[in-house]
Write a structure and sequence with these properties.
Blueprint: H1 2-25, E1 30-32, H2 35-43, E2 50-53, E3 70-71, E4 74-75, H3 77-83, E5 87-90, H4 97-104, E6 108-111, H5 117-130, H6 134-157, E7 163-171, E8 174-176, H7 182-189, E9 192-194, H8 207-213, E10 217-220, H9 237-240, E11 244-245, H10 250-254, H11 260-274, H12 278-283
Parallel strand pairs: 1-2, 1-5, 5-6, 7-9, 7-10, 10-11
Antiparallel strand pairs: 3-4, 7-8
Helix pairs in contact: 5-6
Length: 286
């Protein structure tokens, strides 16, 4: 009887040790200073690990109840140190020295860019390891690849020419999304061709350049700005013909996160509605 009791006790100790090791493998106190990463953490079913967010993290709605720990890429060091998180994640820090200060306090810091689909895949894999949810990460990687393959397949089978597009990030000065930017990547999957082909990132361009390139459509990301109040924009054909598309939810397109494929689907749908009947009417012209 005593031997059986000792065996049960030994197994119980092993079980407790295993549970303890498992709990140590994934941090419970995570601070995210990136809206896209906050969305990813929640999408992977790990929202309960979040203890703070940036002021820009606003989706899903439930994260708004979390305390803030700084702005996007700008940690409030004293507040974070008081929270004693195990991990801080962000795409970058405005002040790189902040990462050193957090690490010296024993807090793990992961900083990696997330400017496109490859970066997103890398973050998904990394989160799967950091948060000990490899199965969820693998599922999200498959979903990502399936969505991208689906959009690309639709483009190959479509007989339509890509619509030439201008992405307006801000109107004064005129800032646009250049080659290899996230809007450029999502636009291509939606059947758009960026008129800015040589400059990368988010360059400033002239109105003369836009007039010369004469885009078919303008995708308007400039929140709070109205092209109708700027008379200089009236010379652009897309403006005159009402072909300015304001995304339903631009955060779904500008954040490389789980909702981006919904954003692309909405963009495709809105473009199809905007240009419905245009090709047939042009073909009917002599």
């Amino acid at each position: 009887m005593r031997r059986l009791f000792n065996l049960v006790l030994f197994l119980a100790v092993l079980c407790l040790a295993a549970c303890s090791d498992e709990s140590k493998s994934a941090p419970d106190g995570v601070v995210s200073l990136s809206p896209a990463l906050t969305e990813l953490i929640c999408h992977l079913g790990q929202e309960d690990r979040l203890i703070a967010r940036s002021t820009a993290c606003d989706w899903p709605e439930s994260v708004k109840s979390l305390p803030t720990a700084g702005n996007f890429a700008e940690p409030e060091l004293e507040r974070i140190l008081a929270m004693k998180p195990a991990l801080v994640v962000s795409n970058e820090f405005v002040n790189p020295k902040d990462a050193d200060a957090l690490r010296q306090a024993g807090i793990a810091v992961e900083l990696h860019p997330c400017d496109g689909f490859n970066d997103y895949r890398e973050w998904v894999s990394l989160m799967g390891k950091l948060l000990d949810c490899p199965n969820e990460a693998e599922t999200e990687l498959k979903r990502t690849n399936d969505h991208i393959a689906g959009f690309e397949s639709e483009l190959k089978t479509s007989q339509k020419k890509p619509l030439r597009a201008l992405y307006v990030i801000w109107d004064s000065p005129l800032l646009t999304a250049g080659a290899d930017s996230l809007p450029d990547a999502v636009g291509r999957l939606a059947g758009l061709e960026n008129i800015v082909k040589t400059e990368k990132g988010y360059p400033s361009i002239s109105l003369e350049f836009v007039l010369k390139e004469d885009p078919d459509v303008i995708v308007w990301f400039a929140h709070g700005k109205d092209w109708k109040s700027n008379p200089s924009w009236s010379g652009i054909r897309a403006i005159r013909e009402g072909r300015v598309l304001v995304p339903r939810d631009d955060s779904a397109l500008l954040r490389p996160g789980p909702r981006i494929f919904d954003g692309i689907a909405d963009l495709k749908s809105d473009l199809e509605t905007m240009f419905a009947g245009k090709e047939s009417s042009e073909d009917a012209q002599p």
